[in-house]
């Protein structure tokens, strides 16, 4: 038994250790130590498990950044911050308060949010204002004359200090152009203003805030609003038809005319001052081919007055072959009266009947509820 133990002790690697431990310090070569190990030493070292080094990086984020990441609404963001402040105060005072945030808590939370946004984006300007009272000459806020108010909020300066306007209107709060809080504020105002357009939205925002590059920001918010997109669909344009033949072909003066009335106008027909003014209308007759205009004065809108105006017109300008008008009752009545007169004359004289059939005036109307067909005289 003792012989076996002595043999184990004499040959045991665990008892004696590795062979390099018996060498002198001068014999160690750390650069080539692995090459000098014999096979038994290598087998012994292979039994040990290697240890891997792990590097862990811990990033601490501020409370403000965490709250912004979970909120897409400015009112919700203020409510969350105000409730967090209430919880902190309750922990300090060992008291408990329930209900919605009060006005003071709401204002304090809003001031905290705006101050944090400005410190993260306008840190150099705020530091310069605290040190020397002015921003650096190369600052992008130099033209706005910014200053810090009593609450540490960066505001726009200007020359309205003596104005009776509200303080927020005289000195609006500066907001950065590229920040999530700025987008949330613009979206909030766009919603409470019933989805107003970019110009009205920017005007309402500038009563309290001054976002940098505000016009482009408001335009971006309005164009990305789903409600506004649904309420303002793309309007299809109507393809217009061809112009009438009388409009595009040359012809004699007042051969084809369009008729319309303008007025009423009031004139004095008597010399006495107490006499009431007389109501008159102007009959506009325009040539469809040359755009020449003839004006006739009428005292009412009856068919008789229109017939008299046409007679005076034909005496001075000659007979027209075609008349075009809208569907006013006096025009329709005059057309029926002329047709009735033509039929009466046609029954009395065959020669005159042939003449009327050759020289008869054609009276036509534009389609109902289509004033663009009479755009030529409507412009006049």
UniProtKB/TrEMBL annotation:
This is Integrase catalytic domain-containing protein. The lineage of its organism: Eukaryota, Metazoa, Ecdysozoa, Arthropoda, Chelicerata. Coiled coil: none annotated. GO terms for biological process: DNA integration. It comes from the Eukaryota. InterPro entries: Integrase_cat-core, Integrase_H2C2, RNaseH-like_sf, RNaseH_sf. GO terms for molecular function: nucleic acid binding. PROSITE patterns: INTEGRASE (PS50994). Pfam families: Integrase_H2C2. Residues 246-380 form the Integrase catalytic domain. It comes from Araneus ventricosus (Orbweaver spider).
């Amino acid at each position: 038994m003792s012989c076996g133990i002595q043999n184990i002790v004499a040959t045991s690697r665990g008892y004696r250790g590795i062979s390099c431990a018996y060498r002198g310090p001068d014999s160690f070569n750390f650069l080539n130590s692995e090459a000098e190990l014999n096979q038994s030493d290598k087998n012994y070292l292979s039994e040990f498990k290697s240890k891997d080094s792990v590097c862990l990086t811990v990033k601490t984020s501020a409370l403000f950044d965490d709250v912004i990441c979970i909120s897409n609404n400015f009112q919700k963001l203020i409510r969350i911050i105000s409730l967090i402040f209430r919880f902190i105060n309750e922990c300090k005072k060992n008291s408990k308060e329930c209900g919605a945030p009060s006005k003071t808590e709401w204002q304090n939370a809003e001031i905290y949010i705006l101050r944090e946004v400005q410190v993260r984006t306008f840190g150099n300007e705020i530091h310069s204002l605290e040190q020397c009272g002015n921003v650096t000459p190369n600052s992008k806020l130099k033209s706005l004359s910014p200053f810090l108010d009593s609450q540490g909020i960066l505001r726009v300066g200007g020359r309205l200090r003596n104005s009776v306007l509200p303080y927020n209107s005289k000195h609006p709060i500066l907001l950065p152009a590229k920040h999530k809080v700025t987008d949330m504020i613009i979206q909030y105002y766009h919603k409470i203003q019933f989805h107003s357009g970019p110009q009205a939205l920017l005007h309402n925002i500038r009563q309290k805030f001054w976002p940098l590059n505000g016009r482009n920001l408001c335009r971006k918010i309005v164009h990305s609003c789903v409600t506004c997109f649904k309420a303002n669909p793309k309007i299809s344009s109507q393809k217009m038809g061809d112009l009438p033949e009388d409009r595009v072909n040359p012809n004699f003066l007042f051969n084809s005319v369009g008729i319309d009335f303008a007025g009423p106008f009031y004139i004095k027909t008597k010399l006495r001052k107490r006499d009431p003014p007389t109501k008159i209308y102007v009959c506009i007759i325009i040539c469809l081919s040359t755009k020449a205009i003839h004006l006739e004065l009428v005292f009412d809108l009856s068919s008789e007055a229109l017939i008299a105006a046409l007679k005076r017109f034909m005496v001075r300008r000659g007979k027209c072959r075609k008349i075009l008008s809208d569907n006013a009752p006096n025009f329709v009545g005059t057309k029926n009266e002329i047709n009735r007169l033509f039929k009466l004359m046609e029954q009395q004289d065959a020669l005159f009947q042939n003449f009327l059939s050759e020289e008869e005036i054609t009276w036509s109307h534009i389609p109902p509820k289509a004033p663009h067909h009479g755009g030529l005289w409507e412009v006049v």
